[in-house]
Amino acid sequence: MTGRQGDVGLLEDPVAQELLGSRELARLAYTWTDGTPRVVPIWFHWTGQALTFGSPARAPKLRALARDARVAVTIDQSTSWPYRALLLRGNATVEMLDDVSEEYAAAARRYFGDEQGEAWVNQLAGKPMARISVTPTWVTVLDFETRFPSALSA
């Protein structure tokens, strides 16, 4: 293991690196404007420093993130044993763009493949988009072999 649970150095762990390069969806958790929790499945791109997400410029979650930037993100592989999970926390920043972000285009190619990814991005070209970036401040890796949720390992 690269570091203790909570240590951002865990981003270098092989399990974390596998999930950050995977086609698994991220689950972005944030607080809605009425104080209730929300979770949305979303494509992501790992820049090596931050998780980035593309979003339509009028998405309601952008208003909620402007009020409370604290988020949690989970990327997991839970279709076969042993399960793998990367959990992180941080603050989201939102940047409004006039076009598709490079990170969103890279995610589209990763999820769809080069040809279909390019076609997907081309249909969105020239439309406003928001880039949501999360620089992790807390990280946990679960591999269900040597690292388990705290309730199981206590």
Topology:
Layout: H1 14-20, E1 26-31, E2 37-42, E3 45-46, E4 51-56, H2 60-67, E5 70-77, E6 84-97, H3 102-112, H4 114-124, E7 129-142, H5 150-153
Antiparallel strand pairs: 1-2, 1-5, 3-4, 4-7, 5-6, 6-7
Helix pairs in contact: 3-4
Structural class: alpha+beta
- CATH topology, anyone? Pnp Oxidase, Chain A
CATH architecture: Roll
| Helix/strand order, N-terminal first | HEEEEHEEHHEH
- Distance linking N and C termini: 18 Å
CATH superfamily: Electron Transport, Fmn-binding Protein, Chain A
What's the CATH class, please?
Mainly Beta
Number of DSSP helical runs:
5
**What's the shape?**
globular
Unreliable stretches covering 5 or more consecutive residues: none
Overall pLDDT score: 93
Q: Largest sheet at a glance?
A: 7 strands, antiparallel
Q: How many strands appear in the DSSP assignment? A: 7
Query: What does the radius of gyration come to?
Result: 16 Å
Structure overview:
This protein is an alpha+beta fold and 154 residues long. Helices cover 27% and strands 36% of the residues. It has helices at 14-20, 60-67, 102-112, 114-124, 150-153; strands at residues 26-31, 37-42, 45-46, 51-56, 70-77, 84-97, 129-142. It has one domain: Electron Transport, Fmn-binding Protein, Chain A (Pnp Oxidase, Chain A). Strands 2-1-5-6-7-4-3 form a seven-stranded antiparallel β-sheet. Helix 3 crosses helix 4 (114-124).
Briefly characterize the structure.
27% of the residues lie in helices and 36% in strands. It is α+β, with helices and mostly antiparallel strands. A hairpin with a 6-residue loop joins strand 5 and strand 6 (84-97).
